[in-house]
Each structure stands twice: as structure tokens, then as C-alpha cells.
Amino acid sequence: MSALLSVKGLEKTFGQVVAARDIDVDVPQGQTVGIIGANGAGKTTFVNMITGHLTPSGGTIEFEGRDITGLPSRKIMRLGIARSFQVAQVFPTFSVLENLCAATAIARSGSSVVGAALSRFASAETSADAEAALDQFQIARFRDALASTLPQGVRKLLDIAMATAGNPRVLLLDEPTSGISLEEKFGLMDVIMGALKARGTTILFVEHDMDIVQRFADRVLAFYDGTVIADGAPAEALGDERVREFITGTLIRSKDGKLGAGRTSHA
Amino acid sequence: MTGLRILLGAAILGGLGAAAPFTPLWLISLVTLAMSTGLVVCGLIILWRGGLVPFGQALFFATGAYTVALSGRWFGVTDAFLLIALAVIMAVLVAFVVGFLLAQYREIFFAMLSLALSMILYGVLVKSETLGSTDGINVAQASFFGMMPRGPGYTFALFWLALGMVFAAWVGVSAYLGSVAGQLAGAIRDNEIRVEYLGISVTRLVHLKLTISAALAGAGGALAALSISHVDPQMAYWTTSGGFVFVTILAGAASVPAAFLGALLFEIVRTIAVALLPGGWQLILGSVLLLTILFVPEGLGSLMIRKRVTVSGREAA
Ligand SMILES: Nc1ncnc2c1ncn2[C@@H]1O[C@H](COP(=O)(O)OP(=O)(O)OP(=O)(O)O)[C@@H](O)[C@H]1O
Ligand SMILES: [Mg+2]
User: Ligand 1 within 6 A of A87 CB?
Assistant: First the structure.
């Protein structure tokens, strides 16, 4: 099977800091990939390069056989790669429904400025799409709440629901459960995965909680110091010696020390 | 916008048009001039909803006005409709070009850069003899469908032209504000990153807004040039831009008709203020602005419409 998303020799440096190096990853259609790594390991940088938020210093990214390296984010988005953010990105002064309408209206207008100027915002199709997303992501009871007043978990769901408005083939989720209490994490992931699996979306998600990774990922990419140190089925990757030393070990330490200070300070 | 509202708007404007022959000429001229300001303010509302306030909108206003004056002087164009079309096209061209730069900026930088560009035009107009220098240029009398009305007839004709332009602007701007691009104004103000990641270019959306606002400012400038029968560099000066922002605050971003009522109120207050306090009319105008900001911060428009639960309604809030 040929890869839907194919990354070769990807590299990113910020002055002296090497945030990504020698990353080679092929993701086939329909896979759910869990991305793990300590703070500052380069997970967000990886997501940022694929989605065009950052231009790689080297290497190539191909999507459906097409080179998308260095394209602006909105073009990559239009080709079918969407993302959510570590800090949920919504329109705070819009209601939940209006947020979704904005997303579905842009998708319906073909994401072009001319299309957006010529199509009406308030259309039956746009609202129907938005209402469907409300149900799919189980946030219908927050329909008319202002996005700025939402609980963290709902805001995350809204962010992801908006990202899926254009029916992306690949969706990258940067820490979908960060800032969510332990009890709620699984429920939240169930909702997200349920909605996305129904669409057949290929998913890459960054996650610090190994229980979540084991439960939801078909495959794990382990990042350490800007590069992938393990790549394989969850049991295999999480059992890797270096992963246990550098990543899962770090996580246990950082539970009491909270933020894993040892890792972030070098960043 | 519903057909009923369009019909109602047409009826109101038609009624005003029919009342013209029974209205003192000075008042008709005042309203015509106010409508030219209202057109510019309509454009500022579009920008303001996206969080953008240009301090140099007179750039496009003056472009429109000078296009009318120069088309008459250099090419002998007299048809009012053609003159206005040319003014709009020129203003749009200028906005399209400077938009590549302006659309990259936000907030105070957008405001100041727009001001800087308008001051450059002012400088050019003042220095250039061919463009009339500080004295400006007289605008020849325009014709309407080949007719050249004289005296009060000309004042009426310009007034009716103004009403037609107001109607067109009202319908057009309402349609734009109801479009996806128009409704995204609040989204741009809220979170540009999210807009980009929904697949649409914020820079291009801002560029479009600027260009539409320039078309309206150009039309306003053309109308002003015709109704004053004269253009001068003052039309590009920063106080002119400031006046437009003043009326925008007075009118608020909530409703398009408010732009015209705000402009009318502004002209009336200014006329009264000048009559009452010839040396210090700015004192009265300033106080009006102060009171508006203190007591009607969302502008006159917010008093006219019920709060809507739409995105645009919330933006106005
Ligand atoms: N814009 C930037 N400028 C400079 N350095 C950066 C920038 N973005 C990331 N870095 C550095 O690159 C490295 C990788 O950061 P990245 O944000 O990708 O880590 P992460 O794995 O997502 O961490 P976390 O788990 O804390 O989110 C870090 O050392 C970080 O300080
Ligand atoms: Mg990160």
C-alpha cells in the first residue's frame, strides 16, 4: 500500500536548537498514529511542518504523491490536511454554532475569497452541516454558548469539529486531551475517535498519556530530541528500551515534578 | 436582506426624492454632501467589523473626487454616471495596488500606514501644478442622460443621483455583509490563525474589504466633487479622514442605514456648530463625539436595530 502522507529526511533548526532531524515516516490511509515524546522533543514542530505552519529547513513532505513542502497552511488545508491545536483555536466572541457555521461556510465556499464573497453565510446547507457536527462531536447542548465561556474539553472538541469541516483526509491533533482531567480524557477521546473513524480520516495525534496512546493508536511514533527513536505497533514501540528510558520514564518522573523540568529547561 | 426590506428602503428613498422640490435648496445640498460622507462611512463599517480603522480613507475619497474633476477637464467627460463609474474604478485600482501592502498590517499599523499613504497623495496634489495645486480644480457641470439641468434642477438631479447611490450601496453592502466573507470579519478580529487553518487567506480577505471600502469612498468622493463643483487637496488631508472615522463612531458598525443617518447628523451638527461658534465649532463637534463614546458606544445603529443573534449582531455588541 502506498503512503497517503510521506515524510523524508525532515529537518528543522531554530538557530542553535535542532527541533527536528532525520525524520522519515510513511502513513498509509486510515491509520491512527500516536505521537509521543517528552516536552520539547519536537512533536509540535513535526505537526507544524506538515501543516505548513513552519517551513522545514530540509527534507520533503508528500501528500497523495504530491510535494507539499513549504506550502502555506491554507493551501495544505485545502488539499486535505487539517489540524487542531495544543491550545484550542476558536472564535471566542462567536457561539459554538457560529464557530461551526464559519467553518462549514468556508468549506462550502471552496475556501476562496471570491467564493466567500459570493456565497451567503446563512444558508440551509451550512447550518445543516454545522448542526450535524454538533451532534457528531456531542456538543449540541453548548450550541448557543459563547466559545469563550466553554469548558476546556468542549473547546477542544469544537476546535477539532471545526478542523473537520472541510472533510480532511488527514487530521493532526496536537494534544487533544491536554488540560483535561484524567477521568474525562477517555470519554473525550472516544467522542473524537468515534466522529473521525466514521469519516475514515487518517489521524495523527500527539499525546502524553500512554494509556490513551495504547487504547487509541494503531501505531506509535516516539520522538526524542527532534528525531523518531521508535516507530511501530504500540506494544512494540512502548516496550522499546530507549522509549522507556527517555519518554515513559520521564513521564513517571514528571508526574510528581509536574512539568518535567529537566527536559524543558534545555529547550 | 429580504425583498420587503429592499422595497421599504426604496420607498423611503423614493419619498425623499419626491419631497425634494418642496425642500429648501441649501438643505438638499447639505443632504447630498452628507450622503457622500455616508458612502465613505459604509466602507469604513466593513473594515471596522474586521477590527480595522484606516486613518487615511481620504486617499480613496480624493482619488474619486479628482478622477471626476480631471476626467472633465482632460477628456471632456460630462456624463454623471460615467464620471462616478470612472471614480470608482480609479479608487478600486489604487486600493488594489496599495492593498498588497496595507493588507499585511493590523491595528495601529494599518491605521497609520493608511494615513501615510493619504498624506503622500496630499503632498502630490499640493505640489503639482497640473493637478491644480493648493487651489484645486473646478468641476464642470455634469450631464444626466444627455441633459444638462440648470440652477435648482441641477441640485435636484444631484440629490436624486445621491439617493440612487445610497440605495445601491445599501443593497450591495448588505449583501456583502451577509456573505461568508462579510461574516468572517468578526472571525478575523477574533482569531486569524483559525481562519487561515479553515483554508482561507486572511490577507486576501482584508485586501477585499479594503478594495470594497475604496469603491465606496471613491463613489463618495465623486459625489462630493459634483455637489461642491470643486476639488482641492483638503479632500486628501488627514482631517477629512478623521471626519470619516468620527462619523463611523457616531454611526456604529451595527447597521448600514446608520452610516447615512450618522453622516447627516454630522453635517447638521457641524453646520449648526459653525453658525453658533464660528471660531470654535470643533469644541461642539468634539463634545458630540465624547458623548457618543460615553453613552452610545456602539453607535446610532445600535439604537436602530434590535439585537440580532447572528454573528453580525454579536460583532456589533
Ligand atoms: N518558534 C520556535 N523558535 C525557537 N525554538 C523553537 C520554536 N518552536 C519550537 N522550538 C524549540 O524546538 C524544540 C521542540 O519544540 P516542540 O514545541 O516541537 O516540542 P513538543 O514536543 O511539542 O513539546 P511539548 O510536549 O512541550 O508540547 C524545543 O526545544 C523548542 O524550544
Ligand atoms: Mg507540543
Answer: no
The ligand placed nearest to the CA atom of residue A48 is 1
Least Cα distance to A206 among A186, A220, A224, A225 occurs for A220
Q: Which residue pairs from B289-294 have beta carbons closer than 8 angstroms and sit at least 24 positions apart in sequence?
A: B289/B246, B289/B249, B289/B250, B292/B249, B292/B250, B293/B249
Residue nearest to atom 27 of ligand 1 (CA): A39
pLDDT single digits (tens) A147-194: 888 888 888 899 999 999 888 999 999 888 888 888 888 888 888 898
Structural domain tally of chain A?
A: 2
CA atoms of A100 and A167, how far apart (whole Å): 13
Domain hosting residue B266, numbered range: 3-304
Domain that includes residue A247, residue range: 3-88+168-261
Q: Nearest 5°: CA angle at A109, between A103 and A110?
A: 95
Q: Cα separation of B310 and B17, whole Å?
A: 33
The answer to whether B277 touches B284, Cβ cutoff 8 Å, is: yes
Question: What's the ipTM?
Answer: 0.81
Following CA atoms A251, A257, A262, A265 in sequence, which dihedral angle do they give, to the nearest 10 degrees? Answer: 120
**pLDDT value for B304:** 66
Evaluate whether residue B311 is within a structural domain: no
Task: Name residue, grid cell 470619516.
Answer: B244
Q: Is it the case that residue A70 has pLDDT exceeding 50? A: yes
Number of domains in chain B: 1
A267 lines ligand 1 (CB under 6 A): yes
Q: Taking Cα atoms as reference points, which of A43, A26, A27 lies closest to residue A222? A: A43
Q: Tell me if A50 sits within 8 A of A172, measured CB to CB.
A: yes
Q: Which long-range contacts (CB under 8 A, 24 or more apart) does B2-7 make?
A: B6/B171
